[in-house]
Structure formats: structure tokens, C-alpha cells
Give the backbone structure.
Amino acid sequence: MSFLEWRRFNFFDLKKNVDVGSINRALGDTNVTATSCGHGTIVICDSEGVIHLINRNFQVTTFQGYLHSISLVEQLKSLPFLVTIGEDEIGSDPLVKIWDVEKRDRQGNPVCLKSFRTSPTNKPIPASSLCISDSSNLMAIGFVNGAIILYRGNITRDRVLKQKLLRNESDPITGLAFKITSKRSHLFVATTGSILQYNITVKDKEEEILLDPDKGCAIGCSVLADTIQDFPFMVAKSNAIYCYTVDGKGPCYAVDGPKVCLQWFRSYLIIVAQDENTVHSPVTVSSTNRKKDKYVITVLDIQNKFIVFSSVIQEIIAVLPEWGSFYILTKDRNLHHFIEKDLQSKLALLFKKNCYDICIRIAKSQEYDSENLIEIFRQYGDHLYNIGDHNGAIEQYIKTIGKLEPSYVIRKFLDSQYIDNLIKYLSALHKQGVATGDHTMLLLNCYTKMNLFHKLKEFILTKDRDIDFDLNVAISVCRKSSSEDALMLAEKHGLHLWYIKILLEDHKKYLSALQYIEKLEYTEAYDMVTKFGDTLVQHIPAEFTQFLKKLCTNYYPSNTLLLDQDEQQNRYQADPQDFIYLFLNNSSRLVEFLEYLIKFSSKWSTSIYNTLIEHYLHLWYDSNDVTVKLQYEQQVLNTLQSSEINYDKNQALILCSMRNFKSGILYLLEENKMYKQILRYLLSCGNYQDVLCCCRRFGYQEPSLWIKTLWSAASDSFFPSDSLCEVLTVIEKENLLSPLQVVEIMSRSQSLTIENIYNYMLSILKTELKLMEEENTLIRKYKEETDRIHHHVKKIQNSPIVFQGSTCSACKNQLELPSVHFLCQHSYHQYCYQNYVENENECPACLPNNQKILGVIKSQEQNKDLHEIFHSQLERAEDSFSLIADYFGRNVFNKIEVNTEFTKQFQQATKNNIKDIKIDNVQINQYKLSTEIKSNKIKENRVQHNMSANTNLTLEANIYPFRESPTEISVEESLSNAIENKNFRSNTSTNPFDDYDENKNPFFDDDSQDNYEKDDNDYDNKLNPFAT
Amino acid sequence: MSYAYLFKYIIIGDTGVGKSCLLLQFTDKRFQPVHDLTIGVEFGARMITIDNKQIKLQIWDTAGQEAFRSITRSYYRGAAGALLVYDITRRDTFNHLTTWLEDARQHSNSNMVIMLIAKTAANVEDAFINTAKEIYEKIQEGVFDINNEANGIKIGPQSSPTNPNLPTDGRNKNSSSGCC
């Protein structure tokens, strides 16, 4: 019935005859009657009363224990004590001897510590079973009549052991075992007919429990499995091994065959049974056909439930677990060693048979390290996968999580038919917290693919556990399938970005998104606004503007209550500049926003104000309604004029001019004192009334405005004539432009008629005429005066002079001789004169005046040669005419000489009397000078006239188209008359110096005149551009 | 673990009907798809609470094969309850129930509570606990001699023998239980 067996493996190697016959030699011909092992020793007792102790090297120590025979032997497991029961003589009570195997006497034999007789009755009854607790505090002896004697006390030290008879005559005792835990002590008893248990925890209160009234066993067929807690006592019957707990029957393992011996080794149960099926077993047939009994040794792994060794073997006397493995003593006295294979080779064996589950069980029970265990799981998984058991495979793979690379598994299950398995694996990955974002995504995608939305929800909600997945991935995947879930997820984990994004993009719930933002902390809200502001402003501009107002002025999350004073200081204000761009297409909201801000505080940056102005203008520009337009216009102006508002004027100007916002431009230009620009702007607008107003307003600061106006009037055919008149009047009045220039400017116009400048020209000519008249009068006057002086000079030179002064000019007394007379009609007493003057050649009265004149002349003489100064002045001078005229006036171009020579001659000639002549000569020079200055002035005018005459010629040509008009002709005539006059005059007196030199300077010598002319010529050639 | 009563159960039925799985499900709350054949008798235990009393259940899971019948028979005595299991997908397992029932009656004491369990439809927990309730009621009614351990009932180490005449509540019987 081999099919009703556990699976078989071969985990043990049998090494035969390990003692090399040493036991056989020691035993000789005797029969083995009892065996035991423990404390590193195997003990064999024989029928002659001899005890053999065998150590690990199979060296045998033999000594005579009893005179007759030994029936039972027990070596303590951890103590060096040996207990034997035997007979020194036949028919006596069994004699118990306790030996100390480590203490030797003189012959080298162990010392017998104690020996006493034991018997439950008066008659000698052979003992059938012996059991000693490991602590050596309890000993039980069973007898063939069914009695059990329990000894309490340390069997080696206590002098007298307390004994108690536990059981009266009944079935023979076949096995005894102590099960001692920290709390309780039990004695298991096997008889031939039943299984009993005694609770021997408390002395003298031993309690008998019948575990199995039906079953008993033979001697040696019961064992205490000391490594198993629950059902430690095992009894072999012919059909099965029965296990017993302290309470009663436990499990049983069906193993066929009449059992001979039962032994426990580690976690293995060693069963020796007689082989009933010798004939059928091929192994036995081949092994031996001697007439010995065949035995089957079977090693069971109780925990894992399989047979780890099974073999047919010769007759066995004893199974001895010692030295870490177990040995069997066969009837022919050979010791065979069973060596357990190491774990690796066991596993290799199992792998070969694809028994992965067993592998895992073994590995776990042997506390195999986790890495190798995982390798087993993986191999198992691979195996299951290959045979098509994907569910099973995934179970195994799940166990590898943490060590095995998940992609190894995932790759295998990517096929859509294995999606369930994949989900299983992935959720396990997540549960163990080793999932990456990719795994999350894969899992969520699987869920959606399978339409497992409830699972998806369950997964993402993770109520009672931590998040074991990448939220971002989860949300993005969820979003594709059900945005509600994604929303929920985002909200739950505070992923505001996702939340709002989904609300806006998927649900189009702008208001709720805004409400959500309002609840956020400042920094978060700020981020959200920067990210989603454009969407919000597009859809819910009003609400969003309200929110921004709050954000930029006084932000606190909307779900917090009103804050107290301290916390109010911690409120946040965002920089509104960051949000302006949001309103680029929504000026009215922006204006609303900015107005609110400005109302709230005035300490904003210039760009805020600039933006406000810009958008005011934008609105102004866009609006069609007049009142609205006016309103905005007023607002812009208010903003511009407000002293608090710190806007950039230049930029504002640019903005105004971009929108052509007139009042703003004008205001700003005026602020910046850019009057020309104002004018230019006004002109470009064509608003001539304003142009004039502007000129009037700013003409004092900027006279060129008028000229500009004139220029534009000339080029602009629509320029109103009355305005032009005003311009011309101002130009004339202020003398801003020479008439010739005015005419020239006017002549450029295509549309202006002479009528427009008629009045102007008229008044100009009138003034000119008046001026000419005045000057002519002046010339006449000067000429007269010059003539008078000439006459006087002549008179002095040629006519006798009567000195008829009667008083001394110095002392005002009656003149008395000797007296000094001067030609200037001053007379002095000589003594007065001598007292009065230092220089006797001059009249003291006239001296200061003369010296002044002489000084002027001298200084002119000095300046005369400084051509460089003159040139530099000429270059710098605004009006070079007047400069040159000034030089002419000072007579610098003439050789000015004070006629010292003449004076000297004169002095020599009339040493006493003619001194006055000389003085007069100086006076004459003085006169000459003043006349020259005057005539120079006139000349200057003439030169100017000359120029204007030249230009008049061109003007005449230019005004040619108007000749046919009779009125114009008359104007022309008068003009040409005037020009002729001028020409005439300028022709007649082109060079007054020539005139003067030739006719009017009688004082010049020939030499000097030559010099002069020469100099003059030099001068003319080189410097005088006006010379004809 | 202290308990007021210890009840011993035996699970019987044809081979392959799921006896071992039933036990595994009850004791370990897990399901093993592939289970080795039971060789002999396996063993499990679990504590349950009935009427505020801790009751320890010791369960023998027997081999269903005919070959092991002699072994399993020896377990009937000493059991207070038997779970008779069949597989609703296999008619013959149902047909064999009479044999099992006869067997059980023959070898057990007359008071044993026998519960019929169809494998696939079974609520495992209820099956075990209702059986335990039944036994408990019988104890209360005084049907069981609780001092005779051969009945498969043992009084816990701490608790004193209860008054058998004590009225009990929670007498809801499982209608499907084949009480004998």
C-alpha cells in the first residue's frame, strides 16, 4: 500500500560499520541485553553483567557491573550518571546501581555511587522499564506485573529516595517517559494494553489519566518526542503510530508493519519495523537471501509529513541517537551511522523533483536565510508559471517581494489574460511599500482596464493605511478613468495643484476651484493663482478679481476665523505686479483691481500706477459712450495730477501718445516743460486756437514757439490768417525774427497770399522808414557838428585867437600878468598855473577830460593788433554784424595816431604861447572820433540795408505770381522805391573812411596818410568781407 | 489557555471531500488548494466562545480512505461531535454518508452530535460553532455525562463543574444539523 504513504525522499546517507568491529570484539559471544546513550557515550550492557562504554572514537571501556545480568540501562543525557538495573544473583529483587562514569576507581572503572534493591511487592519481580528525568530528580521503574515505582529526590546525592507505588498489578509496563515543563510534570506510561498518563506535579497527589484504553505496545515501541510540544508521546502499533497529548489522543500516522523499535531524533521519528513484504520488495530480494529477519527502518519528518529515509536493513538491536546523528546497532554487532544530508543537497534533491512546497517547508523549519528562501520561492514561481498555474505562481512571486526585482515578475504577466494575477502582485507590492510610481500606474491602469472601479477606489482611499504609492501617478491615472476619484484623492492628500487642475480642466468648476484656493495658506494660494490665474480670470473674472484684491492686500485663508490683533500682522500681501499679466485682456477688471489697491494703500511701485494709467487709457480708447469716455478721461487726469501717485512721467507720456490722449499729453508735456513738443503736438492736431493759446502761455519762456508757429503756418495751408496775423505781430513786437527771414519763411508757403503779410510788411516798412528818417536826421546832425568842429579847427589853425579871459581859471581872481593862456580859452596866473599843474604843457582844467579821451584812443590802439581776439569774438558772437560794427565804431581799422610829432613841432615853435593849439588838436581828434563812431553806426545800418536789398531781389522774384494784382503792384512799387532808396544811400556812402580821410582830416601828414592807406588796403584785402 | 470545556470532534467523510481543508480553514483560517492525502489522523485545536464560556475544540481530521478505516474507528469513541462531510459535486460521497453514519453510531457513544456538511456550501465557522452549541446545550440539559471523558468532553482545569440545570440562552439550533 505504498500509495497510502507520505512522499519519500532520501535525506540520509548510511555509512556502514563505522566502529570497524571494535564493538564486536568487546562484546564477544555475549548477548546484548540493554543499550542507552547520552553524555557523549553509548552504553551497551550484555547478558554477563558487563557494561561497555563507547566514546566518540569508538574506544570501548568495559567493566563488570553485575555478577549475573543487566536488564535495563539508562544514561542521563546531560549528566555523567549511568543507572542500571540488573541482578547479582538469579531470582533476587532487581538491583539498581548508579554510576558516575567520569569518576574512575583504581582499576579505571566508573565508581558506583549507590545501589539499592527495588520491588513493588515482596516477591522479586523483574523490572521492565526505567526512566529518569533529565534533572535526575525523578526516576520511575516499571515492572512486568504492571507496577510503577516513582522515586523522588536527587538520585545521585540524596541518601534515601522517596518512593511511591503508582500502579498496582495490571498489564506489564512497556514504556515510561517524563514530560516535564516548567509548571507541570507528567509521566507517560505505556503498557501492553493501554496508554496512561500521571500528573506528578504535586507530590503525593499523583493523578492517573487513561489516554487510550484500547491500545498498548511492546517494549521499546514508545518514545517521547521531546521537541514536539503538543503531542509528545508516541506509541507504535502495527498499523500506525499514535500520538498522545497530556489530554488524550492526538494524531496518528499510518505506517504499516509490526514495529520493533521507536526512536526520536531531532524532529525525526525513527521507526524500525519487521518487513512483512520481503518477497514483494525488489530491494530486499537483491540485498540478501540469508535466513535473517528483515527489518525496515523508516525515518519520518513529522512536521513536514514525509518520509525522509526508508531502507530495508538487517536485524537491529538498538537505535542510538548520539553525537549529532544517529547510529544503529545491528544484530551482528556492527554500528552503522546515518548521516543527514546538508540542507543544500536536500533542496537540490527536492528541486529535481519540483517539490518546491516541501523545499519551502524544510527551509523554513530549518531557519534558512531569507535570501535563499526567496530564491526558492522564485524557482517555485517559475515552475508553476511554466506548468501554467499562474495563480499559484503569483502567490509564490508575492513572497519574493522585497528581494526579487519586480520587473522580473511583471514582465511575465504583462499579457492581458494574466491581468488578475498582475493586479494581485502589484497590490502586494504596494502593501509591502516597495512599489514605485510605475507600479502604481500599472496597477491603476489594470484596475481601469478590468473596470474594477470599486477596487480602484478602495486602493486610492487607503483609509486605514499609509499611502504606499506615488500620489502624482495615481492621480494622473485616475484622472483618465474617473476624475471624481482623482479629485477625491487630490483633496484627501492636499495636492492642491492637482485638485484645482482637475476642477478647472475636467469639471470646469471654476467657482469651486476659486473657493478651494481661498481656503489655502498664503504661499499655496499664491502658487495656485500664478498657475491657474489665466483660466480663472477668463471664466470668472469678477470673483477672481475679488480674490486677488484680498490676496494682494490682506490675505488669510477663508476657513480660518477672524484673527486677533497679533496675527493680523502676519497677514500676507502678494505683489500685485505678479498678477497684472492675468488681466491683459480684461482692462476693466484690472482697473477695478488696481483702483482697489490704490485705495488700500498708496505705496505701490511705479509700474502699478503706470499699468493703471495704461488700462484707463485702454478703456477710454475702447469705450464709445461719451459719458463713460469722459469719466475715464477724468480718472486718467486725476491719476496724472495726483501728487501721491508715483508714476513714471515719461512712460505715461508714451502711453498717452499711443492712445492719443490729448489732455494727458498736454498735461505731461507741460509738467516736463516741453513747450515745443506741446506746440508740435497741437500743430499736428490742427487745433490752431490751442496753438495760439499755447504760444501765448509759454511764449515768454520760449519765444521760439512763435517762430515755430510761423514756420508751421507757412507750411500749413489751413492755418487761419487771423492767427497768422497775431503771430506776425508778436514776432514783430518782440523782434524775434528779421523781416527778411519772415518773408523768406512765408515765401515757402504754397498757399499764403501776400494779403496775409500785407499788414505786417506795411508796419515793418513803416518802422523802417521811420528809423531811416531818424537816422538821417542823426546823420545830418552829426555832419553839422563835424562841420562845426572842422570850422573850429580851421579857425584855430588859421585865425588869430584872442585870449580875453579876465579871470584865472584856477583862483577865479582877476587875471594878472604874468599869465598863461591856453587855446581852450582857459587862462591862469602863472604862479597859479605853476602851482596847479605838474605838466606844464596842458591846461589843468581840460586835463582830466583830455586824458580820458587819450586813454580811449590808446586802448583802441592797443586792441588794434589783437586780431586773434577779434576772430575768436567773431566766431563766438551771435550777431557778427554788430561785433564788426562795434569794431568799426571804435575805429580799430584805422591807424589812430595822436599827432605827437605835430604837437612837438608845435611846442617847439611856440614854446610858451602855442601850447593850447596842441590841446585843441587833441580835442579835434576827440571830435573826429565821436563823429566816426556815429558814422560807423550809420554804416552798420547801411550794411544791413544793403543785405536786405539783396534779399529783396530774390523776394521780388518769388512774389512774381502776384504782380498782376494792382494792390500788390503798389506794394511792390513802394517796396522797390524803398529798395532804391537804400541802394542809393548805400552806394553814396559805401566807405565813409575814404571820405573822411580825403576830405575831412586835415591833420594827417602825407606820410601818415600813405601809411594809413597802405594799412587800410592790407586790411581790406585780408579781413574785410564787406569791402567792395 | 484556560477553558471551561474541551470538546473533541471528529471529521469524517469520503476521501477528497475536503475534510483537511475544512480543518485548516477553521484552525488557521487559510485555504490550501493542494493538500496532501491524510495519512492516519491529523489534529487541530481552536478556542471558541459560547455563552461567554471559553471552549476549546480539539478536532481529529481522519483519513477518508477505506484502508485507514480501522485507525479512524478508534477515534470515534472519545468524540463529542462528528462532522460528516460530503462533496456536493460527487454523488457517491453523499451515498456513502449512510455508511459513515452507521460507522459513527456504532463506534461512538449515543449522544454524539453529528453535523452534516456539504463541502462547497459550508460556512466553516458556523459548522463548528453550531456543533459546539449543540453539545453545550446537551451539557446544559444533562444529556452528556461531563465527567466521563470517553464522551469527548472535558471540564477545563480552572472551571468547576457547572450546574447542569442552569437555564441557558442562545438556543438557536442549526436546522441543517443532523442531530442524532
